[in-house]
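Bug: token stream looks shifted between consecutive jobs. Job 1:
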Amino acid sequence: MKKTIRFGLFCAFALLAACAPRERTVVLLSTNDIHARIERFPQLAAAVEACRDTARIVFLVDAGDRWTGNAYVDMAEGRRPILELMNRLGYDAATVGNHEFDPGQGVLGDMLRFAEFPVVCANLLSDTTAVPQPEPCVVVKKHGVKVGFVGVVTNYEGDGHPAGQEAVFRGLSFPDPQRMARRFASIADRCDVLVLLSHMGSTHDRELLAAETAYDVVIGGHSHEEIDEEVNGTLLTQTGKNLRNIGVTTVRLRGHEVAGVDFRLVPLDAYRPDPEYAGMVERYYANPDLRKPVGAFAQTAVQTGIANWLTDLMADETDTDVAFYHIGGVRLDSIPAGEVALSTLFDLEPFGTEICTLRMTPEQMRRMILSKYNDPVNTKEAHRIDLYSTTPYTIVTDGRDAVDVRFPELTEGRTYSVAVSNYIYNKYDDLHYTDGVETGLLVTDMLLEELEDDSPVVPDNTPRQRVAER
């Protein structure tokens, strides 16, 4: 009788064990804001392959901005180098970033067709043959685990679209990304893990997550931050920019339910470059035209020095009193002393930026600077010095918002001739002026001429703009 009871209990426990949900681990490897830094791909490949060697269920995804920032990609046909590397490494899904639109609809359309991984974006609607309509989401299955990916891109910096030239967005529309993210979270019942690939920026990611959502993880981009935080029960991540890190999100599944989510930011410098990918990158960098020196710098220019050089040249080239250039257009942190290759100029200014001239009073300049500093919508670019200038100025704040701008070298009430980038001319909301002219002069042509004629350049690294609390 006792044997029968013990055997019955054993069978009961065995049945419970057999019926208990099996625990599995899913690894989400993520990149964002690569900005064509293909020289980092050998380390990325080594990190990805190391993970695939040790974990069974691994997904590799990207949250947008795959190019704009490296001439060896940006000047290549179709910007193919970055896509060829991503295809070879086996990305599983991606979304679009604002810089995917920089080279125009033709290149974007080629990218969507050439990519061997799904590029999803729920708030990109195409009414043009150049850009095939991307799917809003995709469910990818590996080893019995289904992960759903929804993509969204910012529409906050432009006129209802990502930042960029108006002509690039004709025939395209961008519904509110947060609304579309909530709408397509409905695919949660089709997958075990639901992931949002977001190129909205962290402020808007947090706004989305402040309301309850079905997402288990938000893999973000656009704001170039290193983020590992929980917002209203959902993990929000971001890896910074330029492939300095890879994101490693670990999702524990008990049966088909998420039992836990963890994140690690892993620096890629810790990995020895993969030889195969190093060889691919070396071939991409073999372009002799881009490698040739076009001039030299007498000493290292930091970002402030580069901006001072740019604005000085703009004012000289257009014979204006004052010049302004936006910080987002200065794409290099520094230019070292010594020879400067043609590729460096395109790395510095990859947008084909043109110079515009206009006439402004100090009050109009003040209004432009205050509006940009206090921008409540494009918060990524707020509460910082966003406009470099030939004329010194001080932004006076109340501890947070700007309340005044002081120009020690300008006379109030006088009208000055001003040079600005066409980005400022076309995109700044609170820009007031008279006699605006699009000159057609390219910033890259201006820089090239200066380097060829007046090398070595001696940069002025002294800041001309500052912020002070009243």
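Job 2, same session, no restart:
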Amino acid sequence: MAGNSSAKGCLTLEGRKRSLENAEGPATKRKNSWGILISQGSWADRSPLHEAASQGRLLGLKTLLLQGYSPNTLTIDHVTPLHEACLGDHLACARVLIEAGANVNATTIDGMTPLFHACSRGSAACVELLLENGAKPFLDQCLPSPIHEACRKGHSGCLEALITWGADVDQDIPYLGTPLYVAAASQHLQCVKKLLYAGVDIEKGRYSDTPLHSAAQQTNADIIKLLLDFGANANAKNAESKRPIDMAIQGTMIERVLLIHEATPCSLCQQCRLCIRKCLGRSRLHLISLLELPAVLKQFLQYR
């Protein structure tokens, strides 16, 4: 009898355990899928509006707003429905929320804005929408940076939108460095190109390391060539008195490119291009197309 009672107790306990797993399983899976955005706290108090925005259910979202839900409803971690819509790349939902009065510069307790999440997801359309409606590319030095996130993830479309709307391409965050440093370290060639075309300070990286130092430690020789073509100093030394070539792995294409650059004098043509671009300054590079010069020279100055 004792054995039977023990067996029944085990079966009952096992049954409860399975019931609990079945009840919590889907929710747990959904929570885990949200990664950076959803913590246990914010999951616990997500509103129906958050759910509709995260899943891109436009009709449901409009209905909830008509029923009186605030577009700025916060979770315990200060996540708004607009954060959810941007992270999910749901442009129509983001637009409806903004039209209803959603704060485009709302920050979570981790300092993340809807613009940061749009850049993290790679939603250039959401980035454009947010910027058109007053989102600020830069709020505070201590907050996560949209332009750095776009460069880290290689989302060149988001980066282009940020540049067009006046984001600081030389924004320096001590622990990250500049956007160019991040793009070079992450080996995203298109992002490096867009930053260089925008007139970024090519020697500004992280602490005493330049973007060329960063790129030299990677494997993409095209980025090295591009940085050198835009005037990166191959002899720049960091805090350890190391040049970019000292950071390169021996026998690689990157080392070869740097060695060839050392042995090849810069052409007069190239020196003139760099000098003219420097004289114009970043704020006036867009005026090159208005110069009374042959089209071929304009294209040369613009690296086209």
